[in-house]
Amino acid sequence: PLWFRCRQRSDPLTSLLTANRLTLCTMAAITSSELAKHSRPGDMWMAIDGDVYDVSKFARIHPGGAKILEQLAGNDVTTEFYELHRHEVLTKYKRLKIGCLETVEGSTRSPDDGNDLSSIPFAQLPAFQGQISPYFKQSHTCFMEAVRGFVQRSLVPIAASQELSGDYPMKETQQELGQKGLMVSRMGPGPWFTQVAELGIEIPGGVAPAEFDYFHEMIAHQEVGRLGHPGFIDSCGAGFLISAPAIFHFCSNEVRHQIGGPLLRGDKWSSLAISEPFAGSDVASIKTTAELTPDGKHFIVNGVKKWITEGAYADYFVTAVRTGGAGAKGISLLLIERGEGMETKQIKTTYSTCAGTSLVILSDVKVPIGNLMGKKNDGFRLIMYNFNHERWMIVNSLLGQVRAAITDAFLWAKQRKVFGKALIDQPVIRNKLASSVAAMESVQSYNEALTYDMANSREGPVGTRLAGPIAMLKYQTTRTAWKVADDTVQILGGRGITRTGMGAKVEGLKNFAKYAAVYGGSEEIMADLAIKQALRDFPTRSRL
Q: For residue 111, is pLDDT > 70?
């Protein structure tokens, strides 16, 4: 079982919180009677989870006003606090801590760590909560803990604010994602790993490039997905991760040598420009044109691309263009660098603008012939080759968000009191949780079996045999996400439709479930593809 701690180390998040708690408990021990003395405007103390906070000055800027603090000051307000706030708020305002509350016996209380995911039902992949798994090994545990630590330290502090503000990611964030191995890890096994040591890129958990597999990648996508802020999650590389692998697979050696390193380090960013106002899932109908110049040295590109994730701030665009006649056989792929003749405009979609979803307008853009990816008029095949991994990636990001929403629903149901008892004591709530968990874990099991197939098939995820099964997995995952969003919103109530606070991750899933059902291939196209592929080998003489 993989519940053991990697190399005798604790989960970084748990270690951080435990260390923080121990530090606090070396501060002054404050009795309940002493706490009660500080209950007047201008002199207000409160206890939460055994820690005492001086909120006297904070009251002036408290988002809910000073009165509610005045009413509760001088007391242990743990129950009231967790009905209004996420635990992260305590970390944000840790500067207000002044001591620890003594227990009746006079010893300093050390509250249980509510953030140890190993003890919250269904909060982690089953393999990390005691299940005997044939897929996950110790390196996966080490990798998971390292990725989770990075997410907690570097992404959690900025995720909620950027989701709300819509600000594009800072270059420093992109570079940190690159240098700490969060980009190369989410590209999956591939030729890019040969450059990791040379570029000084760290693989989380010290996993050797030769050992890295699709289960490591699965973990990376799901751990980032657990952030629960879908626009911010996609701003951390959704467009990059579906375009950079194509650059390494299909561009010339010269182009790969020139831009491969800067991409992997996060110095440069790429996106995938396929969809148009005229063609979404129907890729063969694209209208963007690329015509050769008389000297044969350049393509002149004209057209419009739409709904391009991270297009607003990408440096390079893997772009589908028409270089031949109608249909799939007239399509090529070009790598277009941002420059003269290209304009990108932000599109406001269901989720945050920080993901840079954009309209890309191409007006007489001059592209060197050397930026042709693969062969002329063979682009449709390359696009289909790229789709399998993209769809599997969407599945795992979405499953991370689903698990985060279910975790928050469990936490809320345990701490919320209604009609004199905990919400979890209501049978209808337990039924909703059971229904959502059963759906999620069923899809995760399907996901793990298919990932094993990917890891052991000669062609990996890009083989044509896996196109149908991966499409079916995406279809079932987005259907499941919609069902989980429905259940968890009902459990969180008004908080589940509020972008901030206790229900933010549930509200995020509510929006992203439909988003994921459309991009990368709509549910209807996915279901149809899976069945059509299955029918190819249908025995002609079979009868009922």
A: no
User: What is the token pair recorded at 158?
Assistant: 């900025």
Alpha-carbon gap, residue 247 to 242, rounded angstroms: 10
Which tens digit of pLDDT belongs to each residue from 426-467?
999 999 999 999 999 999 999 999 999 999 998 888 888 999
Report the run of H or E that residue 247 belongs to, with start and end. helix 244-250
How far is the C-alpha of 335 from the C-alpha of 73, rounded, in Å? Answer: 61
**Encoded amino acid at 222, one letter:** Q
What is d(CA 539, CA 542) in angstroms, rounded to the nearest whole number?
A: 6
Give the C-alpha separation, 321 to 82, whole Å: 53
pTM above 0.85, yes or no: yes
H or E, element range at 308: strand 298-308
Radius of gyration over alpha carbons of the chain, in Å? 26
**Contact criterion met (CB below 8 Å) for 401 and 225:** yes
Q: In this structure, are residues 469 and 453 in contact, taking their beta carbons and an 8 Å threshold?
A: yes
Q: Where are the beta strands (DSSP E) in 189-297?
A: 270-273, 289-292
Question: Which phi and psi angles does 46 have, rounded to 5°?
Answer: -140, 150
The SS3 assignment for 491 reads helix
**Interval 519-535 mean pLDDT:** 94
What are the beta bridge partners of residue 337? 316
- Whether the CB-CB separation of 474 and 521 falls below 8 Å is answered with yes
What is the residue-wise DSSP string for 521-542? S-HHHHHHHHHHHHHTT--TT-
Query: What does pLDDT average to over the chain?
Result: 91
Q: What is the three-state SS of 506-522? A: HHHHHHHHHHHHHCCCC
* CB-based contacts of 273, cutoff 8 Å, min separation 6: 305, 308, 311, 317, 318, 319, 320, 336, 360
Separation between Cα atoms, residue 446 and residue 441, nearest integer Å: 9
